[in-house]
Amino acid sequence: MSVLLNFAMFPTDKGGKGISKYVSKVINMIDESGVSYKLNPMGTTIETATMQEALAMVQKAYDILEPDADRIYSSITIDIRKDRVDGMQQKIASIEKRIGEVNQ
């Protein structure tokens, strides 16, 4: 099973220019967890084998930010597919293949 969870989470009470130091704490936690992830300009996509694992990562992210913030914003999208593993790479490869076909 592949659970792709894309999320953005950051404190909204720290000013628009100073949140990268908080977001970097979350990314460091994800990196150290061993979960497959891809950072993007609007959030981070993680891939886990179960929904429970994915949501646990979101909880850990919140737990990192909560002590320093009175208000935290988060958006989450989830793609769950039972017949797939390595979904993050497969989805990207599928699009890249189609782009190649369009350019021929």
Strand order of the largest sheet: 2-3-1-4
The helicity comes to 40-55%
The sequence of SSEs as H and E is: EHEEHEH
Q: What can be said about the biggest beta sheet?
A: 4 strands, antiparallel
CATH topology: Alpha-Beta Plaits
The helix/strand class is alpha+beta
Number of strands: 4
By CATH, the architecture is named 2-Layer Sandwich
CATH class: Alpha Beta
Family: Belongs to the UPF0045 family.
Pfam families: Thiamine_BP
Domain Thiamine-binding protein: 6-96
InterPro entries: MTH1187/YkoF-like, Thiamine_BP, UPF0045_domain
Could you please describe the fold and organization of this structure?
- The structure is a single chain.
- This protein is an alpha+beta fold and 104 residues long.
- It has a single domain (2-102), classed as Alpha-Beta Plaits.
- 43% of the residues lie in helices and 30% in strands.
- The protein has helices at residues 20-33, 51-65, 87-102; strands at 2-11, 36-40, 43-48, 72-81.
- A four-stranded antiparallel β-sheet has the order 2-3-1-4, with helices on one face.
- Helix 1 (20-33) runs antiparallel to helix 2.
- The protein is globular and about 50 Å long.
- The N and C termini lie far apart (34 Å).
- The mean pLDDT is 93.
- Residues 6-96 form the Thiamine-binding protein domain.
- One of its GO terms (cellular component) is cytosol.
- Pfam families: Thiamine_BP.
